[in-house]
Design a protein that fits this description.
Layout (H helix, E strand, L loop, with lengths): L1 H18 L8 E2 L4 E6 L19 E7 L7 E7 L3 E6 L13 E3 L6 E2 L8 E8 L10 E6 L12
Parallel strand pairs: 1-3
Antiparallel strand pairs: 2-9, 3-8, 4-7, 4-9, 5-6, 5-8
Length: 156
């Protein structure tokens, strides 16, 4: 009986961790003029490590399609841990991630989106820094004032 309960508990813990795992295809879409709280607490270290990131940390992934300029900035405004935000031009669920084209690990220091290619899909990875230690996780608040390209709409 104890073994059955232990197996059930392990199964519940594993499934709750997997519920927060992301893939490139399931990246959270970013909307314009929105504030976000990126919580990596329940996520996993699923992305391959970026060059500047030496420590395995929990990750959250967002995506958007660049609209017409001017695009503005993504600005981290508050954090509960040592975080890093990387703007990447593509995404891979295994192997090496592409080199970030812009990054920040400082509150109030924005990632400038101006100069991105209109109509191209980009990703924003939120993760911990090497200074935060292995498994670094917490929350990062950020704002997205940029316009995004309309994908489709319907009229009822």
């Amino acid at each position: 009986m104890k073994q059955c309960l232990l197996a059930a508990a392990v199964g519940i813990l594993s499934s709750s961790s997997l519920a927060h795992a992301q893939t490139c295809a399931s990246a959270t879409p970013i909307a314009s003029n929105t504030s976000y709280v990126s919580d990596t607490t329940g996520t996993t270290d699923w992305m391959f490590q970026f060059g500047p990131l030496a420590s395995p940390s929990h990750d959250m992934l967002y995506t958007f399609t660049a609209g017409a300029p001017p695009l503005g900035m993504i600005t981290p405004t508050a954090s509960s841990y040592l975080f890093a935000m990387y703007l990447i031009p593509s995404c891979a669920d295994s192997g090496s991630e592409p080199s970030p084209i812009r990054a920040t690990a400082t509150l109030g220091r924005a990632i400038d989106l101006n100069g991105l290619t209109e109509g191209m899909r980009y990703y924003l990875a939120v993760t911990g820094t090497a200074a935060g230690g292995p498994g670094a996780n917490g929350t990062v608040h950020f704002n997205t004032p940029f316009p995004v390209m309309l994908q489709s709409f319907t009229v009822d």
